[in-house]
Amino acid sequence: MSVTAVPIPPVEKGSLIKLWGGLALAVAIAGGVAWAGTGGGGTPGGCKTVTATGLGISTVKAGKGAKPTDTDVVLVNYKGRLASDGKEFDAGQRVPFPVSGLVPGFTEGLKQMQKDGSYKLCIPAVLGYGAQANERIPANSDLVFDVDLIDFKSMAEIEAMQQQQGQTPGGAEGMPQAAPN
Prior knowledge:
- This protein is an alpha+beta fold and 181 residues long.
- The protein contains 3 helices and 6 strands, in the order αββββαββα.
- The protein has a domain at 49-164: Roll (Chitinase A, domain 3).
């Protein structure tokens, strides 16, 4: 058995550097495309749209109709998590909130939602609780909320409903109760 030698032509000077450089560039581009496709852009938590204030919001399921204002009370399902590790710190079903009585990022987000819609809010610490810490939320934490806007009404509508039903303010089911002193 004989071995046939195949001549290998010499490689041009610098072509290996070009080959490895091109390969590194291709890997970098592929990694960037993969990162962007998983929601790595935008905000902590992966929201796609960022407002002028820095709030991130993504529409999971579009709603219909008007949007709440500062004078409205909303009825929502929500789940709040820390953007850093995804740990859930709060959740609620059919919870009424006055739009203007919440952290700035949540208030701003609610005013961009429509009834029967589902949304994701990515709230930077400056629009959340900032340097305030508690047992569930560390200081300067970015927050992520999944929110379903079930319904909303103005305070005037709520008061009229309560009067019609012969109830005192704060006594209707699904309406905000006064905070205990």
